[in-house]
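Lab notebook, bench 4. Still working through the backlog of constructs that have no structural model yet. Next entry is a single chain of 271 residues. Request: give me the structure tokens for it.
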Amino acid sequence: MKLNWPSAKIGWYFEALSSSGLGRAVLIRVTGVRIPVAPPIMRILSACLIAIFLVFAIPSSALAHTVYDFPQSSEGQVNEALANVVPVRFLISSPFYLLISVKETVNRFFQPSAVKKAEFDMVVSGKKLKETYLLVEKGDVKNASRTLVLYSDRLDKMSKQIEKARSQNQDVTALVDLIAENLRVHETLFFAINKKWEMMEEGYSFDENFAGAIAAHGRTVMVLNNVKPGVKDRFTTVEDEATEEAEPSPSPLGESTFEASPAVRPKKIIY
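Model written out:
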């Protein structure tokens, strides 16, 4: 005998028994229509494929950080390093920062010798790295990345002034020792910046500019080592295999130039 139940009654039976897993069986028995349902293994496979897709859809640059083998520093050592750097009045995010930049340019122009210019660049480079730390602490990755570029440029300018002073037979021995001590302070600030940066997402080429700053630091160490051999041994971020001194090549004016390999020692990439 064929039953002709109203559709409303069929829906009521299906809804009443669906919670116990019997709704589909009742619906098939009443209507005679078999509803295809994916096997459990197919549903698990689909869920896995969706999860894999979501993982690869996230940009790798947002998850990857280069991990550096910096010397460990305590909070007290970091605070001491910050105190050893000249005070920062305005950060690059301030509208008054341009005035500070103009003042630095003018002051550098009136330095009487290459030695004095190199000493001035030493002070400003430490200031730029301190600014980077303060910006990272505020979470301003964009401006922190810009300041790292300024830091690298300042170190390269300082290296050129050291080489110029040597070519002019100026005594740079005392200056080299002073700069070396300041660069050791920079290592502590690198460690502090990296610790805060590890908890943030990559953006604004910060990771690239941070590596560039460390490379500039290493090049500067090698310039100092060319003046006073053994200086590089004070720095743990300079690899032995990357610190071979370049052969001085005579220039048409009889001056010597000194080149050095970047000193960057990444351990691994975290994804």
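Notes after review: Residues 1-37 form one domain. The chain has two domains: 1-37, 65-270. Flag for follow-up if needed.
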